[in-house]
């Protein structure tokens, strides 16, 4: 019996660590195109957008008819002489054929059929035109309507009661929507199909009519108008202004953005990432399934691109090399004018080392996967920046945060003149940078270093830093002879915190990881001796093993003016998962290695709702645990446009909000990245409203490291 139990337990453990490899197949991702408007469109009133069967986009305005040029420009349609001088009252595309029809004050016409379809009528009688697949032309005015068969008038039509909201054609039938009813034209008469209230829009799918209102939507059948789908008002914005069925997708427009119904949620398109203005005036689509949203001030396109993860990765890598390299650091850049790449300039960051470690790490894993020499070159180019951190300042073994040419940074106490002419360096170095040094050297030792000289370079780097820490009583000591605010690993500081403040756990893990790595590289006994002294005499191993669920809110611990433990620290999450990977690669013994695996698994379980690819891959590299659905969600949904836009989601009625909690998780499910501000791993992904102004752009290293780790671990092929 015992043997059977042991066998079952063994099989269970093995099965939990088996993960099927995912083939990198093409997938679709939404991207944004914002049309550049010609000068003539300044202050224009945008009324309607249609797409003809040639995928030409036409926009009706009070200044005439405009069309698209070069995919992202909108200018006056001058193609048909004489017509270019006239202003249509309305336009439409014919059901089935996609031919463009024009309605003018005194006639309707089309340029299809060799221009033979045109008909005159008394001025200003009609304001809407629709054409069905049978060449029946419906004209609607304020007081009456008319039906033509091509140019032959079939009937004058009395309008239904109520103010026209919109008219539609579907399956050769004409529909008339008022605020409280849907009518269908049968035998030259408008027949009441459905009575409702506060109706705003219709969309059609086969024999089902989706009915939009000021309070959500529902559906009726097209035969008797009976309800076939109950009202759903749990929408991003329940007050619907536009609806459109595109294939099997149902799209909505509102006064506050657009959204798409998906099987288990809604995808929200709002803010400047997607729209120049949140009020949606009209929606249409083209033959490729791309969407066009007309607003009071412009035209916006949601363009679907088909790509593999490998293709997406190549695009991000190329952009980094072209636009985000500063000396070898990988930087977010700043725009002079929102979104204008020609005005962009580099900018230093307190955590140049941390952000660059993600890029350097990605290229190290890439080299391990592909053997591509260029990736190896990029690693060494960036590592030169890390080495210079030790030489650009006069302090022994103290790494600067970053460096810059003199004259750029002024009036900042953290910046100091270097002994190197024409350069400044930044002090106050923190644990964020420290873990970057450990991670960078760890991946280089494992994947990049091939010669004794290369080994000596990374060894000297870590040895100098760890010696500085030991000789300064486990602090980073700056030019003023005092410990920096956050560069602190001394037991008196670390154990001042209770178990439920994460700094106790994290700083213990940081230090042991550094001592393990230094011992692995140098063989110096002091590193091993000190590590065990700290674990045995000061409880650093016990600190590392503290369960993450122990963490809770407290206001009692204040460090240099900062309340420690008042909220969940997502920077600590980022540092933790990188630290776990380093801890696990260079343990002093197998017992410690197993403990580190348990630590990573414990933290990962708590973080799973975030669906962060880096958490997933770092954990897999330590304990073998991973949620591949979350990993693919992170990689495939990671934004193509890395500009930082403002976002707002707190008003949404489709979200399931959680009570206020210490982790700051506001909703049951994390939002799509396209609905959030572009942010790094150290930001809470559950923040609903953020204030980016499209004045900066991230590099994409946040994506590259988990992607290449997934490739290295053969999770994606």
UniProtKB/TrEMBL annotation:
<dbReference type="InterPro" id="IPR015943">
    <property type="entry name" value="WD40/YVTN_repeat-like_dom_sf"/>
</dbReference>
<protein>
    <recommendedName>
        <fullName>Two component regulator propeller</fullName>
    </recommendedName>
</protein>
């Amino acid at each position: 019996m015992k043997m059977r139990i042991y066998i079952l337990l063994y099989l269970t453990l093995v099965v939990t660590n088996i993960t099927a490899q995912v083939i990198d197949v093409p997938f679709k991702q939404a991207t944004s195109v914002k049309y550049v408007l010609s000068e003539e469109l300044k202050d224009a009133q945008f009324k309607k957008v249609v797409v003809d069967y040639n995928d030409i986009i036409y926009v009706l305005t009070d200044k005439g008819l405009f069309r698209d040029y070069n995919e992202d420009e909108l200018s006056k349609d001058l193609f048909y002489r004489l017509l270019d001088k006239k202003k249509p009252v309305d336009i439409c595309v014919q059901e089935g054929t996609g031919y463009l029809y024009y309605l003018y004050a005194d006639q309707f016409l089309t340029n299809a059929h060799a221009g033979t379809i045109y008909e005159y009528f008394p001025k200003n009688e009609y304001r809407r035109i629709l054409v069905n697949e049978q060449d029946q032309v419906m004209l609607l005015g304020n007081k009456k309507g008319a039906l033509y068969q091509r140019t032959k008038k079939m009937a004058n039509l009395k309008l239904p009661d109520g103010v026209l909201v919109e008219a539609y054609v579907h399956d050769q039938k004409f529909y008339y929507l008022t605020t409280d009813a849907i009518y269908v034209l049968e035998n030259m008469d408008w027949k009441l199909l459905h009575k409702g209230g506060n109706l705003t829009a219709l969309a059609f799918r086969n024999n089902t009519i989706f009915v939009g209102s000021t309070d959500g939507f529902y559906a009726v059948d097209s035969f008797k108008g009976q309800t076939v789908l109950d009202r759903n008002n749990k929408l991003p914005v329940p007050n619907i202004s536009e609806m459109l069925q595109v294939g099997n997708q149902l799209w909505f427009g509102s006064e506050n953005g657009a959204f798409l119904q998906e099987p288990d949620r809604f995808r929200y398109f709002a803010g400047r990432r997607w729209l120049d203005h949140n009020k949606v005036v009209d929606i249409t689509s083209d033959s490729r399934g791309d969407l066009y949203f007309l607003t009071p001030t412009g035209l916006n396109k949601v363009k679907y691109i088909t790509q593999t993860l490998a293709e997406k990765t190549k695009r991000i890598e190329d952009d980094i090399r072209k636009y985000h390299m500063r000396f070898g650091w990988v930087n977010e850049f700043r725009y002079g004018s929102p979104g204008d790449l020609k005005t962009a300039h580099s900018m230093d960051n307190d955590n140049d080392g941390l952000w660059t470690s993600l890029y350097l790490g990605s290229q190290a894993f890439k080299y391990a996967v592909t053997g591509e020499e260029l990736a190896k070159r990029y690693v060494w180019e960036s590592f030169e920046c890390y080495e210079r951190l030790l030489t650009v300042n006069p302090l022994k073994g103290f790494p600067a945060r970053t460096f810059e040419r003199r004259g750029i940074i002024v009036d900042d106490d953290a910046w100091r003149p270097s002994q190197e002419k024409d350069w400044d360096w930044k002090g106050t170095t923190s644990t964020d940078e420290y873990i970057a040094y450990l991670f960078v050297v760890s991946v280089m030792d494992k994947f990049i270093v091939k010669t004794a000289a290369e080994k000596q370079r990374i060894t000297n780097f870590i040895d100098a830093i760890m010696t500085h820490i030991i000789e300064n009583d486990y602090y980073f000591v700056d030019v003023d002879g005092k410990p920096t605010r956050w560069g602190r690993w001394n037991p008196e500081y670390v154990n001042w915190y209770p178990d439920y403040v994460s700094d106790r756990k994290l700083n213990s893990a940081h230090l042991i990881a550094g001592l393990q790595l230094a011992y692995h590289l140098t063989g110096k006994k002091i590193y091993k001796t000190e590590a065990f002294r700290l674990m045995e005499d000061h409880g650093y191993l016990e600190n590392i093993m503290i369960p993450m669920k122990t963490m809770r809110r407290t206001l009692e611990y204040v460090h240099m003016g900062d309340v420690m433990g008042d909220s969940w620290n997502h920077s600590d999450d980022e540092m933790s998962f990188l630290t776990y990977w380093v801890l696990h690669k260079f343990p002093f013994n197998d017992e410690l290695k197993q403990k580190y695996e348990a630590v990573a698994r414990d933290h990962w379980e708590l973080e799973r709702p975030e669906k962060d690819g880096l958490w997933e891959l770092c954990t897999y590299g330590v304990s073998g645990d991973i949620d591949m659905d979350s990993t693919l969600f992170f990689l495939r949904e990671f934004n193509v446009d890395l500009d930082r836009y403002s976002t707002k989601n707190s008003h949404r009625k489709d979200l399931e909000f959680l009570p206020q909690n210490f982790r700051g998780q506001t909703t049951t499910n994390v939002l799509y990245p396209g609905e959030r501000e572009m942010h790094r791993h150290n930001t809470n992904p559950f923040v609903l409203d953020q204030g980016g102004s499209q004045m900066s752009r991230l590099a994409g290293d946040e994506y590259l490291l988990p992607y290449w780790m997934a490739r290295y671990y053969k999770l994606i092929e």
